């Protein structure tokens, strides 16, 4: 897939000292983080550690109390929000498909909104179905008529429709059963490496994080505990929590997918 | 996607066009007569209107305008030009001043409001308390005071009589009555109730036709409590100037109708089932010696088709307006969190106003007829639509609402492509609820002269003619079913197919 000419090296995501509280209760306490262009950073941590909050800040669903979020050279704020979102694909559990639209309508909804004509939409959809491994006949179905794995493939197609620079994945595979999950993990990694997107991948599963991430960022109670390669985290843990977290995950991972 | 928007647009325009074609043409009349919701008032007003028409002045008679508050309100607001009333009612209900006991005093009091009172038409239609002959003989009841010795008698009085100072409160004080069981009842239903022994004593008007028919005994008012209720014409003071011929013709009735003539005319309508216009003609023939009453056709309550058409107009137009305002209000409530409380509370309060009270409020503002009825129905339709729109939008699952935002859709696509379609099942349910309730509530529009299926229902209750009641009630019930069915059909067009599919194995 051809890169945009005006932006040959992709777009990086930068968080500068970002803080966010809900009702006075801090969810993120001054996080600074860079996702380099065309790389995949896996964000991992226990439930409630702030990783989903971080992703919502990046896509502009929340505004930071302090600090700022940059997508390339553009700050994520009210003024640039919509333009930036069109350059980002956002995938959530189960694909986040709208039940009143067919799979094809789900995939096409943004492209139609920004004025693509029908033939351009159809051509792009055919291309994406092949990429995401979805049988084209499934596109005429409504979400309730698809399996969990099929829904997630459609969700991925929707996120990729406008060929965005950035992909934000919020535990996209968490609700799938193990066999399907393992297949999708393989397919997703192949897609990431082929498309050269800037990817921020949130998961609570260490094995999955190691599978996708060039870099892993471990978050605990609103702070980054350690950032490094999977080997860094295992061999040079920054504090006892890192070892503890990895150890607990390994116990699970031996029986889990992608391990 | 654009296809569906276009289909909705077509449906919308079609509904609008239907409503426009149904909209009533304004009546062409120089004068508008009003009457209250009982036969004697219809007969008198129709007799007056007939005289005016004979003198060359077109008159529109809005019969059945409810109680004193509504019809007098219409006169004070200039929405009608005249209607028949009674001196006792003017003093107690309109002026609230028992000291205004003479006609000149009442005229002086009303002149400031631009309203005049004619000389009495001749008869007194006062209150009296009636019991059956059997009860009277068994208990030796002769005067109202005799009731005091039988506090266990079952009493049913009209709501107006229970509320007015010259009604039961004053009567009980004057005669020292402490009746244990006093219930409110609709006047027309009091006669069947006393006839079958459900109640022992009722209040009646002295020109009621049923008194003789049921052989009731009127208890003597030996303390002279009840004031006189001389029938008069209440009219806009500029009427004699605006329509001198009509006024001259109408005032020919002054002093010409005695109690016997009025009672006979009432009997023609209530007991013999004649149209009230026919009774008005025979009253004129007897009172003025006018020969051979003119041809009178119909019941005077409109045909089934006309009533149903008007009913549908009322429902369709008020519902359409409620949708056009209610859905945006629901959107506003869901969108701006601070707006939800005030918006839903306001719609809720509107819903709790009793319909008669709401109609009474609207008359000084909007007069009588179709417009205030539409406004009232519109206000009653709002709550289910606003609330269901709000609930439907708030009910969109959080992750989906976020996913929709994160896509970067334009605001119009976000609302029309995602949010409103997802909320459409709830919105449609709200509209359906409003429509069905509206079909029922619209029968009350007849109280303020807006017509519809309420006309035969109200008249049927007053005339105790079940056939007439059914002539309104059956079509109204069928209409409610039809509306329900039509909306079930509309659901299939408006609600996206994906929301109507059963969940399959995943």
Structure description:
The complex is a heterodimer of chains A (259) and B (506). Chain A is of the alpha/beta class and 259 residues long. Chain A folds into two domains: 13-87 and 164-253, 3-Layer(aba) Sandwich (Rossmann fold); 97-163, no CATH class. Chain A has nine helices and ten strands. In chain A, strand 1 and strand 2 (25-35) form a beta hairpin. By secondary structure, chain B is α/β, with parallel strands linked by helices. Chain B is 58% helix and 9% strand. Chain B has helices spanning 2-22, 39-54, 68-76, 87-94, 103-111, 133-139, 159-163, 168-175, 187-195, 210-213, 239-242, 244-250, 259-270, 276-288, 304-335, 337-352, 355-366, 370-394, 398-406, 411-441, 454-463, 466-494, and strands at residues 31-34, 59-62, 82-86, 115-117, 127-132, 154-158, 181-185, 201-205, 216-218, 231-236. The model of chain B is unreliable at 1-27 and 292-299 (pLDDT under 50). Chain A binds chain B through residues 56, 59-61, 81-86, 88, 90, 92-93, 96, 98-102, 105, 109-110, 112-113, 142-148, 151, 158, 168, and chain B through 1, 399-400, 402-410, 413, 417-418, 421-422, 424, 496-499, 501-504, 506.
Short recap of the structure:
The complex is a heterodimer of chains A (259) and B (506). With 259 residues, chain A is of the alpha/beta class.
Which word captures the global form of chain B?
elongated
Helices of chain A, by number, come to: 9
Low-confidence spans of chain B: 1-27, 292-299
Proportion in β-strands of chain A: 15-25%
Please mark out the parts of chain A with pLDDT under 50 across 5 or more consecutive residues, or reply none.
1-7, 253-259
Q: Looking at the chains present, what oligomeric state does this protein adopt?
A: heterodimer
Separation, N- and C-terminal Cα atoms of chain A: 30 Å
Superfamily (CATH H level) name of the largest domain in chain A: P-loop containing nucleotide triphosphate hydrolases
Please give the order of strands in the largest beta sheet of chain B. 7-6-8-5-9
The residue fraction in helices of chain A comes out at 25-40%
From the alpha-carbon coordinates, what is the Rg of chain A to the nearest angstrom? 18 Å
Query: Strands of the biggest beta sheet of chain A: in what spatial order?
Result: 6-7-8-3-9-10
Number of strands of chain B: 10
Which fold name is given in CATH as the topology of the largest domain in chain A? Rossmann fold
Major sheet of chain B, described briefly? 5 strands, mixed
């Amino acid at each position: 897939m051809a890169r945009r000419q005006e932006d040959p090296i992709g777009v990086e995501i930068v968080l500068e000292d970002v803080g966010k509280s809900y009702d006075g209760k801090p969810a993120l306490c001054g996080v600074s983080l860079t996702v380099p262009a065309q790389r995949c950073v896996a964000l991992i941590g226990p439930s409630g550690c702030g990783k989903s909050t971080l992703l919502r800040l990046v896509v502009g669903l929340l505004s930071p109390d302090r600090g700022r979020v940059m997508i390339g050279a553009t700050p994520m704020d009210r003024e640039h929000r919509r333009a930036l979102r069109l350059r980002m694909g956002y995938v959530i559990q189960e694909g986040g498909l709208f039940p009143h639209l067919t799979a094809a309508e789900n995939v096409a909804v943004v492209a139609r909104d920004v004025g693509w004509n029908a033939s351009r939409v159809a051509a792009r959809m055919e291309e994406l179905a092949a990429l995401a491994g979805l049988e084209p006949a499934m596109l005429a179905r409504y979400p309730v008529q698809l399996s969990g794995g099929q829904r997630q493939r459609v969700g991925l197609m929707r996120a990729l429709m406008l060929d965005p620079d950035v992909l934000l994945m919020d535990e996209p595979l968490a609700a799938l059963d193990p066999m399907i999950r393992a297949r999708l993990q393989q397919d997703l990694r192949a897609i990431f490496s082929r498309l050269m997107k800037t990817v921020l991948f949130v998961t609570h599963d260490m094995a999955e994080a190691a599978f996708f991430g060039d870099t892993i960022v471990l978050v605990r109670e609103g702070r980054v505990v350690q950032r490094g390669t999977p080997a860094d985290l295992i061999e040079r843990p920054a504090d006892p929590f890192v070892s503890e977290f990895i150890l607990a995950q390994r116990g699970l991972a031996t029986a889990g997918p992608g391990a | 996607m654009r296809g569906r928007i276009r289909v909705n647009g077509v449906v919308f325009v079609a509904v609008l066009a239907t409503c426009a074609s149904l909209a009533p043409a304004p009546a062409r009349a120089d004068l508008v007569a009003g009457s209250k919701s009982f036969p004697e008032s219809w007969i008198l007003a129709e007799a007056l209107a007939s005289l005016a028409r004979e003198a060359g002045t077109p008159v529109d008679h809005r019969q059945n305008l409810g109680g004193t508050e509504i019809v007098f309100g219409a006169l004070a607001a200039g929405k009608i030009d005249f209607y028949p009333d009674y001196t006792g009612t003017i003093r107690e209900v309109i002026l609230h001043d028992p000291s205004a006991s003479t006609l000149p005093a009442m005229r002086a009091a009303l002149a400031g409001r631009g309203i005049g009172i004619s000389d009495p038409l001749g008869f007194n239609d006062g209150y009296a308390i009636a019991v059956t002959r059997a009860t009277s003989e068994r208990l030796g009841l002769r005067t109202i005071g005799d009731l005091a010795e039988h506090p266990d008698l079952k009493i049913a009085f009209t709501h107006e009589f229970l509320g007015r100072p010259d009604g039961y409160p004053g009567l009980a004080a004057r005669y020292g009555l402490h009746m244990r069981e006093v219930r409110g009842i609709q006047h027309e239903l009091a006669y069947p109730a006393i006839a079958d022994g459900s109640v022992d004593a009722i209040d009646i008007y002295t020109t009621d036709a049923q008194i003789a028919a049921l052989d009731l005994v009127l208890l003597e008012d030996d303390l002279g409590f009840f004031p006189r209720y001389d029938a008069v014409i209440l009219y806009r003071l500029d009427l004699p100037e605006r329509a001198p011929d009509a006024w001259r013709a109408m005032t020919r009735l002054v002093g010409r109708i005695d109690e016997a003539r009025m009672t006979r005319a009432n009997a023609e309508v209530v007991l013999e089932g004649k149209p009230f216009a026919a009774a008005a003609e025979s009253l004129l023939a007897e009172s003025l010696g006018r020969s051979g009453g003119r041809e009178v056709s119909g019941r005077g309550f409109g045909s089934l088709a006309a009533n149903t058409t008007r009913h549908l107009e009322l429902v369709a137009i008020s519902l359409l307006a409620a949708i056009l305002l209610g859905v945006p209000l629901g959107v506003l409530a869901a969108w701006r969190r601070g707006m939800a409380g005030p918006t839903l509370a306001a719609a809720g309060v509107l819903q709790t106003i009793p319909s008669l009270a709401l109609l009474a409020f609207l008359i000084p503002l909007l007069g009588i007829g179709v417009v205030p009825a539409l406004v009232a129905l519109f206000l009653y339709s709002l709550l289910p639509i606003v609330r269901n729109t709000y609930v439907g939008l708030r009910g969109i699952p959080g992750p989906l609402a976020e996913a929709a935002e994160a896509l970067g859709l334009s605001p119009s696509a976000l609302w029309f492509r995602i949010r409103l379609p997802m909320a459409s099942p709830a919105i449609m349910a709200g509209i359906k609820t409003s429509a069905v309730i509206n079909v029922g509530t619209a029968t009350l529009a007849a109280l303020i002269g807006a017509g519809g299926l309420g006309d035969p229902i109200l008249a049927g209750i007053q005339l105790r003619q079940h056939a007439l009641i059914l002539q309104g009630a059956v079509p109204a019930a069928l209409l409610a079913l039809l509306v329900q069915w039509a909306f079930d059909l509309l659901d299939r067009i408006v609600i996206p197919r994906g929301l109507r599919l059963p969940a399959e194995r995943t």
